[in-house]
Amino acid sequence: MTRTRSLMALAFGARIVSALLALGMAVIVAPAVFGFYGRLQAIGLVFAVFAVLRLERAIVSSASTTEAVRVTRCALLLLPATSTVAVLAAFALAPDLADQPPRYIFTALLFIAFLARGLLLLINAWLLRSGNQMRLSYLVLSQAVAQFASQALLLTTDLPPLAMLVAGEIMGALLAAAIAAAGHRALLARLIPPRWTAGILSRWRRLILFNLPAALASQTLVALPLITVGRLADHATIGHIALALRIAEAPMALLGSAATSFAVAAGLWRGRTSLTSPLQLVLVYFASVMLFGFLLVGGAWGLSLVIIEGRIAATIAYIPVVFLLPAAIVLGGPHAELVTYAGAEGQAFSIHVTALIAGLAVFHWATAPVPALLSFAAIAGLRSLVLWLVLPRLFRALPDKRDHNEA
User: Fold this and answer.
1) Which parts pass through the membrane (predicted)?
2) Residue 48 contacts residue 89 (beta carbons within 8 Å)
């Protein structure tokens, strides 16, 4: 029990340090630069969903190491193609990125950064498969520290700051990958060179046909608000809103991650648990989200009385508005995973796609950043509500089928 608590504390601490370092870098760079970088980060989160067509989950759940190796070899071959798609999507969703100097070097850095993200995704999958929570926490921590140090060092040069932020991200990812791979030469020898294995996509088609579209729709909706703001505001305003979102997202994401891990580990999607009543769990979680929101808004209000001008003041002014978006998203966080674990990928897909269609309508017709953010918060809140309403129905609909499968 003590070891489990220590591992949980280490994992939580690693994520807190990662979030604080990300916030620190956001404060260091100029608002206009962070506006660009924040949009790239949002696109990168979408890329993480389709980087290897969700085959990273197959690595975790494969019955044998041999099958996991085959999946990884195929996934490595997919990365260059999906990274190219991600670069094209980045320039399509944020056309002003094409003006970043030096143009061709920046494009190459962006491509390598997406490749590095995909590589970390596969390494993370192997650590999850091994159940080594300590190494997984060290991966998060080492990547965050190395990225922050690399970006801070590169920003002291006279080179274009956005390109240096991307280059620092690459250096941090590669260093973390090297640390994680240390001592695993035998496994690396089996993974390299990449090679396609016939039947991989067929054997794991459920992940590709159901899990991938639902996850892609969900993550795209999360990325759309900042991309939409990038179309409606000047670069400095985009930077202030991006930083305000980063500040609001940090505690909300930690809360959502902890709640989701607890819900999955406890098997709450099975609809039967002796831990406490479902209603109590709902009330505790809802109260926690509201408490985090109250602290964010209260802290922003208090700081606004002291700091009346400058970048921090401009950022603080947006927190009472932008906190609604991560709060609305995180309210549905645990259930977004539980619906999938309950074998209801079809329902999850319908919910996420419907929300995405509404989000695309806002992206197309919005004319001002604040109303757009409030519209996205409303869509995310309705999606969370539907997810909470769907899962209890699954509890009643799936017990016989589940018990049969467990037998």
Assistant:
1) 7-30, 36-53, 74-93, 105-127, 136-156, 162-187, 208-230, 250-269, 281-303, 315-336, 348-366, 372-391
2) no
Write down which residue in 168, 198, 228 finishes a domain: 198
**pTM higher than 0.70:** yes
What pLDDT sits at residue 365?
95
pLDDT category of residue 187 using cuts at 50, 70 and 90: confident
Task: Report yes or no on 299 lying in a domain.
Answer: yes
Nearest to 58 by CA among 196, 198, 200: 200
Residues 119, 247 within the same domain: no
- Total number of domains in the chain: 2
Does residue 405 sit within a domain? no
Q: Give the span between the Cα atoms of 60 and 175, in whole angstroms.
A: 23
Residues 142, 186: one domain? yes
Q: What is the pLDDT of residues 275-294, one digit of tens each?
A: 455 566 677 788 888 888 88
Two tokens at 389? 């309403």
Residues 144 and 227 in one domain: no
Total Cβ atoms within 10 A of residue 274: 5
pLDDT tops 80 at residue 381: yes
Quick one: pLDDT at residue 407? 34
Q: Which residues contact 175 (CB under 8 A, 6 or more apart)?
A: 142, 143, 146, 150
pLDDT tens string 132-144: 778 888 888 899 9
Domain's final residue, options 198, 217, 236: 198
Structural domain including 14 reads 1-198
Same-domain check for residues 129 and 245:
no
pLDDT at 403: 40
**CA-CA-CA-CA torsion for 140, 142, 144, 149, nearest 10 degrees?**
180
Contact 124, 67 (CB under 8 A): no
CA distance 348 to 217: 10
Would you say residue 404 lies in a domain? no
| Per-chain mean pLDDT for the chain | 83
Q: Are residues 238 and 115 in the same domain?
A: no
In angstroms, the first-to-last Cα distance of the chain is 29
Amino acid at 25: M
